[in-house]
Design a protein that fits this description.
This protein is an alpha/beta fold and 362 residues long. The protein is 25% helix and 28% strand. The protein contains 8 helices and 17 strands. Helix 1 packs parallel to helix 2 (51-64), helix 1 packs across helix 7 (174-184) and helix 3 runs antiparallel to helix 4 (97-116).
Length: 362
C-alpha cells in the first residue's frame, strides 16, 4: 500500500512510520504545520508544530529513508480547531481540541488530500488498535497500553475514514516504543510527551481565552441563587472546577465549592458541593458511529466522558436530535461540549461503537 505517515516530530509517530516501512508499504512522511507561530521553539513537553518538531520529524524520515514533506494546514487548523475551541468556551462549553483535530484535520483535511494523491491510508502514532476489515464495519479498539490509550479522541471518526487509517503502535506499551526507537537510531526516542493544548504552549488557557474573548462580567451564585461574587467571563470556568473561583467567603460547611453549571447568556456561574456534580443522564448531539451503522433501538454500552477516566455502564437511546445516555453509575464533572464515547460492553469494553457531543446533563 501507499501510506502517508503523519509525523509530528515525536517518538510515537516516528515508530509508527518505521513499522509501516518494515511492513513493506511505500511510505511518505508528512509533518503538519498547524501553528501560525511555529517559529517559537518547544519548551520541555509543551507545545508542538514548532520548527524543532519539524526538524525532529525530518531527521526521523531521513533515518527511515523515506521522502518527507511539510504541509501547511494552519488556516484549516485555526478555523476548525482553534476558533471552535474559543467559540465553545464562549458558549459555556468545555471542548476537547485533540478530538476536534482528529476529526477535522488528521482524518478529514489530511486524509482527503492523501486519497486524492493516490495514497491508500494515513498512518499516525495514536495509541489505539484497528481492524479496518471487520464486519459490519471497522473495529476500533482501546490500545494495549491503558495509560496511553487514545481511542476516546478517535471515537469521532467515521467508518469510511477508519478504513483508510493505520495505528501501528497501538498494540505496544509506551516503554517498548521508546526502546524500539532507540534501536532504530531515532533521536526522538527520549523526547518528552506533549501534555498541553498544542496551540497554547504556555499552558495558560485562561489567559489565551481572555485575549480573544475579552471581559464579560457576570455573577457567581450558589444553588439557592444567592450571589457569592463576580467574574470577568464564563470562559474562565468549566464544570467540575474547584480552584480559581475567586470567592472570598467559604461555604457554610467549610467544604470546597465546585462549578456546577454555566449559563453563558446571563453570564451566571453556579457553584456548590461536589456531591451536586453527580450526573446520571446525558443528552448529546451529532452522534457518529465507527462501524457506519446507526443503531435504531436502545443498546447497552460502556460510556466514557474524558480521555482518561469518567467511565460507567450505560444504556443509549437514539432519538431524532441525538442520543440520551442513562448511566448505571453516576459520573462527576461531565460538561457540555465534551464528547461521550460508547464502547461495546463485552470484550472488556474495548471496542468503540461511536460518540456524540454532550449538550446537557441531569
Amino acid at each position: 500500500m501507499r501510506v502517508l505517515a503523519a509525523m509530528s516530530g515525536g517518538v510515537d509517530s516516528a515508530v509508527a512510520a518505521a513499522r509501516a516501512v518494515a511492513a513493506g508499504h511505500d511510505v511518505v512522511g508528512v509533518h503538519l504545520a498547524l501553528s501560525r507561530t511555529r517559529d517559537a521553539m518547544r519548551s520541555g513537553s509543551r507545545g508542538c508544530c514548532s520548527r524543532e518538531d519539524s526538524a525532529d520529524a525530518a531527521r526521523a524520515a531521513d533515518v527511515l529513508g523515506i521522502p518527507y514533506y511539510v504541509w501547511d494546514l494552519s488556516e484549516e487548523f485555526t478555523r476548525d480547531v482553534v476558533d471552535d475551541f474559543v467559540a465553545a468556551y464562549a458558549a459555556g462549553e468545555t471542548p476537547n481540541p485533540c478530538l476536534r483535530c482528529n476529526e477535522k484535520i488528521k482524518f478529514a483535511a489530511v486524509l482527503d488530500r492523501a486519497l486524492a494523491l493516490g495514497f491508500d491510508a494515513v498512518c499516525t502514532g495514536h495509541y489505539a488498535r484497528l481492524d479496518p476489515a471487520a464486519s459490519p464495519g471497522p473495529e476500533l479498539r482501546r490500545s494495549a497500553d491503558d495509560g496511553k490509550d487514545q481511542s476516546y479522541v478517535l471515537a469521532v471518526l467515521r467508518a469510511d475514514q477508519l478504513r483508510h487509517a493505520m495505528f501501528p503502535v497501538g498494540d505496544t506499551p509506551k516503554p517498548e516504543i521508546r526502546a524500539e526507537a532507540e534501536r532504530l537510531g531515532l533521536r526522538v526516542a527520549g523526547k518528552p510527551d506533549s501534555h498541553d493544548i498544542c496551540f497554547i504552549p504556555t499552558g495558560d488557557t485562561r489567559g489565551f481565552l481572555a485575549d480573544r474573548l475579552g471581559t464579560n462580567p457576570g455573577e457567581i451564585v450558589d444553588e439557592a441563587g444567592s450571589v457569592l461574587g463576580t467574574h470577568e467571563g464564563v470562559h474562565s470556568f468549566t464544570v467540575g472546577q474547584r480552584k480559581g473561583l475567586g470567592l472570598d467567603q467559604p461555604a457554610p460547611d467549610g467544604r470546597p465549592r465546585y462549578v456546577l453549571g454555566i449559563e453563558p447568556v446571563s453570564g451566571t456561574v453556579r457553584v456548590g458541593p461536589d456531591s451536586a456534580l453527580d450526573v446520571r443522564t446525558i443528552t448529546a448531539r451529532g452522534p457518529l458511529w465507527t462501524t457506519g451503522v446507526a443503531p435504531d433501538a436502545p443498546f447497552g454500552c460502556v460510556a466514557q466522558v474524558r480521555a482518561h477516566g469518567g467511565i460507567a455502564p450505560a444504556e443509549v437511546t437514539p432519538g431524532p436530535d441525538g442520543v440520551t445516555v442513562a448511566l448505571a453509575e453516576p459520573l462527576r464533572g461531565v460538561a457540555p461540549g465534551q464528547a461521550v464515547a460508547f464502547y461495546r460492553p463485552d470484550d472488556d469494553g474495548d471496542v468503540v461503537l461511536g460518540s456524540a457531543t454532550i449538550t446537557a446533563t441531569a
